[in-house]
Amino acid sequence: MASLVYNIIEVVVSVTVGLLTGSAALVSWGLDSTVEATSAATLIWRLKGEKDGAGKRTVLHRKKVALYVVACAFWIVVAAILYEAVSAFISQKAPGFNWWGIAILGASLVVNPFLAWGKYRYGKRLDAPALKYDAKDTMICQYQTIVVLAGIGLTQWMGWWWADPVAALLIVPYVAWEAFEATKDARSVDPEEADATADA
Q1: Which are the contacts of 112, defined by CB distance < 8 A and separation ≥ 6?
Q2: How far apart (Å, rounded) are the C-alpha atoms in residues 159 and 156?
Q3: Using CA atoms, how far apart are residues 112 and 29, in angstroms rounded to an integer?
Q4: What are the Cation efflux protein transmembrane domain coordinates in residue numbering (predicted)?
Q5: What ranges do the domains of the chain cover?
Q6: pLDDT at 199 > cutoff 60
Q7: By the 8 A CB rule, do 121 and 9 touch?
Q8: CA-CA distance, 146 to 169, in Å (whole number)?
Q9: Kind and range of the H or E element at 98?
Q10: Which residues touch 134 (CB under 8 Å, ≥6 apart)?
Q11: Helix extents (H) in 92-191
Q12: Residue 61, Cβ neighbours under 10 Å: how many?
C-alpha cells in the first residue's frame, strides 16, 4: 500500500512539473511510475484474493488479469515516452527548471531502496515471487531516476537541450522489455489448469 501511495505522488508531481517545464525526461519518468502504481494496485488485488482463500482457478485468473493490465500499461508508457522524446527533438527547445521536479527525483533516490527492501522481505515471508520481482523493478527505477537527473543537469548547466530527450529514450528499452515479459507471462497463465489439476 505504501508503494502505491508513493507512486501516485510521484506520477502527479513529476508529470505535472514535466509538462509545465517541457521536460520529456521528467514526464517519461512519471509515466513509468504509473506502471509501478498499476503493478502495486493489481498485486494488492491479487494477493487479497489469495489471503481471502480464493480457489486456485480464481487466483490464476487474477494473476493473468494483473499481468495483462501491467503489460498494457507498459506498452502505453513506451508510446508516450517516444512521443514526448520525438516532440522534444523536433522543437529543440530546452526544458525549464523547477525545484519540485528535482525534489521528487531526490525523494525517490531515498525512498525507493526502502520500498524495495520492504517488498522483497514481505515477498520472501509470503513466498510470493511476484512481490520480489516488484522489488527488483523498484530498484531499477533508481537507475531511471539517476538518468533523468543527469539529463536535467546537463540541460540546465551545460546547455545541452538534447540531453533531456536522450534521457527519456534511455528509459524506453527497459520499459519495452518489461512490457514484452509481462505480455509473455500473461499468455503463459492458464486458469483452466486449475480444473485439470482438480480432475486429476
Answers
A1: 138, 139, 141, 142, 145
A2: 6
A3: 14
A4: 2-188
A5: 1-188
A6: no
A7: no
A8: 14
A9: none
A10: 3, 39, 40, 43, 119, 123
A11: 99-126, 129-158, 163-169, 172-188
A12: 19
User: Residue 74 burial by CB count (10 A; 0-12/13-18/19+): exposed, middle or buried?
Assistant: buried
pLDDT tens digits, one per residue of 56-87: 777 778 778 877 887 887 788 788 888 878 88
Length reported for the chain: 200
| d(C-alpha 31, C-alpha 103), whole Å | 17
d(CA 164, CA 156): 10
Dihedral, CA of residue 136, residue 104, residue 146 and residue 91, to nearest 10? 120
- pTM, two decimal places: 0.69
For 25-36, give one letter per residue: b (16+ CB within 10 A) or e. Answer: bbbbbbbbbbbb
